[in-house]
């Protein structure tokens, strides 16, 4: 009696196929998560690229070498102001005085050069010191006087602008050569762009590579927890407002250098653009977050919008409307991001 060997059974592909599908789904989900994270972390940069592409399509005059240099020059003063504002916003504060401090610092510099025997370089340093001092005063009012940052810096806005008008008697004053140099060029590269780069690198270094920078994030994340952890919260606050004042003074020198004179009405309203640049760049008004690179991108977005609208012959009145909508959108996105994070 012969027996027939059973036919070899075919392995069931079901579990393997199911495992493969799960691995594919996991990889796809991981890729999607990475893309979402990249878009969230670099949304401002993507927005800048899309904006540049749209303007390139709208007009061939946008993506030209001279115009791009012009965009950089236009962005320089706002970006420098915004770098200083970044320190303050990281600590959950706000500095409304930066525009007036910029005007005051440049006016002090030029007045001292014209009315004293001081050389232009010394006058420039003293103008920067004046900006640092105004920032320290605002910081002391916030840290030790317990004034809300909004009130303290709003008061400094009025005081600084008033002092600027008193010193100048309402008239522009010529700049020394050291300040005029800041509005010139080194070879093919405009000096304001070089100053912007140096100021941004210093801002990034302070935020990311120093104990003070890490303390700023801690204070902005939770001031009470930072105090209980032993961080010198008051010293941190005075430092950030001092840095904001110093950066504002540097921005004022850039403006005076471009115009070859210190104008008592210079940088009027620039504080709003500085705040907008920081928020557009991804910082939160609630504090605890913000990057120098994001602030730079935010300032470039504002400069590109203005430059593109000028090329397209859009009225300056409508430009103010567009910039206002951009600011509102940036703050709205920040609020939604903060709520989602909570």
Describe this structure in words.
This protein is mainly α and 342 residues long. It has a domain at 77-273 and 282-290. It contains 14 helices and four strands. The strands form two sheets. It has a two-stranded antiparallel ribbon. A two-stranded antiparallel ribbon has the order 2-3. Strand 2 and strand 3 form a beta hairpin. Helix 9 (211-221) crosses helix 11 (233-259). The termini are far apart.
Strand order of the largest sheet: 1-4
Q: Can you count the beta strands?
A: 4
Coarse shape = globular
Low-confidence stretches: none
The end-to-end distance, rounded to whole angstroms, is 79 Å
* Biggest pleated-sheet summary: 2 strands, antiparallel
Q: Taking all residues together, what is the mean pLDDT?
A: 89
Portion of residues in beta strands equals under 5%
Protein structure class: mainly alpha
Helix content: over 70%
Can you give me a brief rundown of this structure?
The protein has 14 helices and four strands.
């Amino acid at each position: 009696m012969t027996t027939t060997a059973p036919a070899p059974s075919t392995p069931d592909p079901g579990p393997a196929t199911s495992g493969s599908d799960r691995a594919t789904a996991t990889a796809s989900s991981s890729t999607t998560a990475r893309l979402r994270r990249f878009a969230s972390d670099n949304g401002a940069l993507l927005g800048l690229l899309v904006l540049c592409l749209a303007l390139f399509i709208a007009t061939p005059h946008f993506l030209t070498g001279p115009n791009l240099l012009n965009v950089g020059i236009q962005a320089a003063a706002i970006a420098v102001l915004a770098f200083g504002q970044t320190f303050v916003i990281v600590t959950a504060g706000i500095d409304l005085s930066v525009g007036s401090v910029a005007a005051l610092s440049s006016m002090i510099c030029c007045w001292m050069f014209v009315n004293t025997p001081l050389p232009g370089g010394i006058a420039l340093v003293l103008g920067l010191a004046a900006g640092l001092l105004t920032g320290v005063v605002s910081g002391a009012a916030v840290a030790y006087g317990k004034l809300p940052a909004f009130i303290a810096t709003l008061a400094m806005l009025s005081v600084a602008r008033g002092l600027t008008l008193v010193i100048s008697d309402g008239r522009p004053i010529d700049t020394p050569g050291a300040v005029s140099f800041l509005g010139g060029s080194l070879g093919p590269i405009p000096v304001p762009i070089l100053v912007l780069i140096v100021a941004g690198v210093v801002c990034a270094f302070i935020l990311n590579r120093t104990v003070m920078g890490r303390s700023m994030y801690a204070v902005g994340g939770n001031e009470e927890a930072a105090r209980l952890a032993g961080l010198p919260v008051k010293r941190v606050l005075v430092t950030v407002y001092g840095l904001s004042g110093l950066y504002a003074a540097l921005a004022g020198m850039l403006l005076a250098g471009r115009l070859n004179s210190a104008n008592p009405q210079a940088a009027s309203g620039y504080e709003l653009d500085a705040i907008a640049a920081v928020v557009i760049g991804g910082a939160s008004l609630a504090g605890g977050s913000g990057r120098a690179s994001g602030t730079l991108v935010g300032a470039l977005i504002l400069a590109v919008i203005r430059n593109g609208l000028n090329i397209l012959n859009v009225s300056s009145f409508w430009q103010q409307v567009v910039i206002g909508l951009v600011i509102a959108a940036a703050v709205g996105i920040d609020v939604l991001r903060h709520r989602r994070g909570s």
